[in-house]
Amino acid sequence: MTVKLDGLSLRELEELIGAARGRLSSATKDHIDNTRSKIQAILADAGLTLEQVFQKNQKKSGRSTGPVPPKFANPADPTQTWSGRGKRPLWFSAALASGATESSLLIGGAADSKAAAPQKAATKKAIKK
Description:
Shape: elongated
Strand order of the largest sheet: 1-2
Number of strands: 2
Strand content: under 5%
Order of helices and strands: HHEEHHH
Helix content: 55-70%
Largest sheet: 2 strands, antiparallel
Radius of gyration: 31 Å
């Protein structure tokens, strides 16, 4: 089907576009209804339900997506914390620039920093090689 658009006025073009949008909407609904009917017929023939065929996987993924507890705290304002993920906060960068170390900003003090420091150093060495 070819429609000559060159000779149509602005109003005629707008009417044509409106009619085409309406037809597109109804054709889409018809297509969805037909497909749904075919799927229901296939399921009925097989004696199955949609839930049986498309079960959600009950196994949880190994990765949690919840909030992460804070790992670092601002010594000047302990209410400012950071989990160590994402972009470094300004207070963290400023503390490092003023001579503080990451281990000194850890929440929980020196006990945690002894365990974390060798691991970070090993990672840095491995990356440099």
